[in-house]
Amino acid sequence: MRTAAYERQPQQRVHVFDASAMPWEETARPGLRLKSIHIDDARGEFLGQIAFDPYVRSGLHQHQGVATSFILEGGLTDYMGHVNLNEVGINYPGSTHDAMSYMPTVLVSKLEGPVTYPPEDKLLSGVHAGSTYQSFRNPDPDMPPEINVAVDRVAAVATGIAGLTRQAIYDYAGTGTNRRLVQWKLRPETELPAWQASDWTELWIRGGEIAVNGQKAFANCFVVVEPGATVRIDSPFGALALVWAEGRESWPGRSGDTNLFGF
Fold it and tell me: Distance between CA 262 and CA 190 in Å, rounded?
């Protein structure tokens, strides 16, 4: 049975999870493993890391919601080609493919909807939250199954906070949701004024270290910010982080053009 470090509960709190200290959990498909921060089969939601051994397939599947995966190690290949190290692969509703690892591969992944497998596939791997069996066809064969973004090549823009820039990875256009995925770069000695989360906000610290509400979050830590939480972040020595935001932040008592996520 899959286990997760956290169950979503909107109680205006902030949590830090060190993924490096978490054990890998085997799935039903040999060669696929998980580290689950959050998993919800009813909603098809997942946040955490996925590991592929060499020469392991995900199995043919179709995404019913958005999935975003940062290639932390290795890479994956499907019929459109390869998603490479330090890229984010974005699957949108209707994306249909079978991903193959030709080398050891680790993903930092967020799934935001169920995944469907064909009935003839008799083994649901458990790697996708909310997996079900159902016959399907590719709804748009002319559309590639993913958008691959070379994160570090994206132009950085100001956020309105000295020392903090953001790189826009995905704006969820056409998905029916208004969310954002960005990369933050914090220079050493950056301090953010207190802000409030209007909805779920999740970070994965790619490098460096931050303190969030007094809790240290260093490389390979996840941070979960619950709706309504007040957040204080500083980075004495610099940090790099992926951030998924399901709503724009607010700034009690502060005016100006500050925009952390690009809404």
Answer: 19
